[in-house]
Design goal:
This protein has 91 residues and is an alpha/beta fold. It has one domain: Class I glutamine amidotransferase (GATase) domain (Rossmann fold). The protein is 35% helix and 18% strand. It has a 3-stranded mixed sheet, with helices on one face. A two-stranded parallel sheet has the order 2-3. Helix 3 links the parallel strand 2 and strand 3. It starts with a helix and ends in a 7-residue tail after the last helix.
């Protein structure tokens, strides 16, 4: 969790897929965030103060989330876009 918290302050993109948003929850980084994930995480995300949606990929600032392996092409596209532009804000 320390690594995730420190990384979230670097101004670099942070991407999670499937059950990965649990890491954001456990690191205390979910509050106010708009994300997607495997559907079974919806209640956990909402309970942590996040906003869950059923979309192939969601970009919220520097946080990129996706639902499952079927969404990898769209997920990778958003990661590529994020890595190609300069960043100055934290996740």
């Amino acid at each position: 969790m320390d690594f995730v918290n420190r990384f979230s302050q670097t101004g670099q993109p942070l991407a999670t897929i499937c059950h990965g948003p649990w890491l954001l929850i456990n690191a205390g980084l979910m509050f106010g965030r708009h994300v997607t994930s495997w559907p079974s995480l919806e209640a956990d995300i909402r309970n942590a103060g996040g906003h869950w949606t059923d979309e192939s990929v969601v970009v919220d600032g520097l946080c990129i989330t996706s639902r499952n392996a079927d969404d990898i092409p769209a997920f990778n596209h958003q990661i590529e876009k994020a890595l190609l532009k300069p960043h100055a804000a934290s996740v």
